[in-house]
Amino acid sequence: MNANANTLVLDFEKNIFEIESKIESLKYLADSQDVDISQEVARLQQKLEKQIKVSYSNLTPWQKSQVARHPQRPHCLDYVHALIEDFTPLCGDRLFGDDEAMIGGIGRFKGISVVVVGQEKGHDIESRIKYNFGMAKPEGYRKAQRLMDMADKFKMPVIAFVDTSGAFPGVDAEARGQAEAIASSIEKCLQIKTPIVSVVIGEGGSGGAIAIATANRVLMLEHSIYSVISPEGCASILWRSADKVKEATEALRLTAQDLRKLGVIDEIIAEPLGGAHRDPQAAIERVGESILKHLKELMPLSGEELKKRRTEKFFRMGRHFAESK
Question: Contact 201/75 with Cβ under 8 angstroms?
């Protein structure tokens, strides 16, 4: 990630940004005055790499939340365009309309015909408004159900890219049955007899995330988060104060590392040094490799076995947490 005016600098990245700025200044000086600064740049590059390792080696849950929400992280459509050949978007829920926050379509992944669903947040103000900041409405979840039915009919694996702060909480969404749409999506995930692999690529928030993440395999990027509620929402409910957001983040145990220990997810996908926003292409390639590995393990199984294992997985999870209370 280059140091420039458009770069978002997180609070724990200030030392990193200072070194990057020095490197950029030296490169500008070399270009304008024909000065050899290669040794100094090499020294600063080594210092930069060391500082990134130090900063990212012990991130707090709140810092991981900041990284997961970084606007320069690759989003759903970045993964689709890079990993899915001949992707054909399919729109509408055949009941109300289309929801652009929920991406859906068919294509080929490493030669395998697949159905893809996922939430898209957008990269700038215009696209974020277009995609409603990744917060789907009922028609988005009903579109996902329609595509899962198609996947089941034609025996195509489902790949889901999860990245949302939660389902859209507006009055119009509630009037059209938001809770029912999410519950039906979860039920649909449990019903179909084809492999489902879900990847939390950024933020997995509340029922809006699990509606497409009730999968045979749930994967998370190293610095992504996945929880029943946002840290801000939790702080406002439990402490009635936004100042308690860091405490809420700790209590939620929403990091990939916590959730792997709890058995909620199946694999943590390592991110490039300094997070996916520093090297989006490398992050996308790693996600693709992990999805392929899990699909190869799941595809030889029968439809009944896939459904049985998926259902048992989530029932077992529920029983474990109920017994631990």
Answer: yes
Instruction: Report if pTM > 0.85.
Output: yes
Residues with Cβ within 8 Å of residue 120, at least 6 apart in sequence? 75, 76, 77, 100, 101, 102, 103, 131, 134, 163
User: Is residue 10's pLDDT more than 90?
Assistant: no
Contact 263, 269 (CB under 8 A): no
319's CB contacts (< 8 A; 6+ apart) are none
Pairing of strands 102-109, 112-119: antiparallel
Q: 138-142, 148-152, 183-187, 317-321: which range is least confident on average?
A: 317-321
CB 129 within 8 A of CB 172: no
Contact status, residue 115 vs residue 148, Cβ threshold 8 Å: yes
Q: Is the dihedral of CA 249, 251, 252, 253 positive or negative?
A: positive
**pLDDT band for position 2 (cuts 50, 70, 90):** very low
Q: 66-324 has which fold?
A: 2-enoyl-CoA Hydratase; Chain A, domain 1 (3.90.226)
Between 34 and 248, residue with greater pLDDT: 248
3-state helix, strand, coil in the chain (%, to 5): 55, 15, 30
| Rounded average pLDDT over 201-224 | 96
What are the extents of the domains in the chain? 11-58, 66-324
List of residues 6+ apart from 80 with CB closer than 8 A: 87, 103, 105, 107, 116, 118, 161
In the predicted structure, residue 324 carries a pLDDT above the cut 70 = no
Neighbouring residues of 128: CB distance < 8 A, sequence distance ≥ 6: 121, 122
